[in-house]
Amino acid sequence: MATLVQAPSRTTSAAPGTPRSVRHLGPNWYASVMGTAIVANAGAALPFTAPGLRGAYQTVWALSAVLLLTLLAARAVHWRRHPDQARRHLLDPAVAPFYGCLAMALLAVGGGTLAVGRDVVGEPTAVAADAVLWTVGTLVGLTGAAVIPYLMVTRHRIEPADATPVWILPLVAPMVSAALGPALVPHLPPGQWRVAMLLGCYALFGMSLLATLLVLPLVVSRLLHHGALPLALTPTLFLVLGPLGQSTTAVNNLADVAPGVVDASSAHAMSAFAVLYGVPVMGFALLWLAIATAMVVRAFRNGMGFTMTWWGFTFPLGTCVTGAAGLARHTGLGVFGWLAGALFAALVTAVAVTATRTASGLAHGRLPAAPPAAGR
Length: 376
Fold this sequence. Notes:
Structural class: mainly alpha
Largest sheet: 2 strands, antiparallel
Strand order of the largest sheet: 1-2
Order of helices and strands: EHHHHHHEHHHHHH
């Protein structure tokens, strides 16, 4: 069981007159923003459309923006009224990685603003909003990608059996920046600014990819040597799809904007890399999806109930949608378009079910609750 180096704060109960729900509002709740926003982002990336879909994506994007603003305000209240609990979240190895969700929530809503929200607020406003959210989200993501591993090494006590896919969360945030940053490239001044943004996104891609490659073997080793995850954590197996789908999305989006930013030979190489990297990684993503789905079915049969970890089904699936859509653009193969459509249908189903269960939990006072512990 993961433990804390620092003893918990003595203040463990809610302050008089303070709603208990605010005290237990953890950073894991930002996953609901991510899961909602990715529906709009993934839908806009599909290689096909139908009447009314654009309006539906705009509605979902607007909902994600409202959720983001609401959670930012609620978390500010949490930090102000319950600093002891907030510090415990940072010092808890089961909870601290969820701070990566804050960066990805900012980035996802920003990306959706430019992808579909521009029809509502106008392109200049959408570009400005996305630029701000991308910049802040990237800075928060880079901070989390450095601070959370530092805390895991210096302040947390972690056993091999404690490894879970949740550890990937702070490391994949820079990959989200790499995938969504290319949309801003055409809005930058020609020349050095565009080149710097393009290559900067490749640097974010490499940073996140290599960091994930260091952690993923620990997760697989834990599964092989210690068995299945606790029931409440089983949905987090889908988090592994995040860096796979998002990295495929990133290389394809970067290849889209490369012509005119770099020379023709470099642009051609980036386009080739998008296919040579994306196709094998998407293949592995489908393999992992099959394994994770089988484990989830097993967990349901063993009595897995609803927790906020169900939001782990959503955003990672969405990244595979955008990744498959990118491969459809660069290969011209219809099979990737159909794959994107099938994954999108699964994404919409997962979001609908999870959002309904979340709303029910809020209405009946069962939520919010702290993320489940990493141990069995």
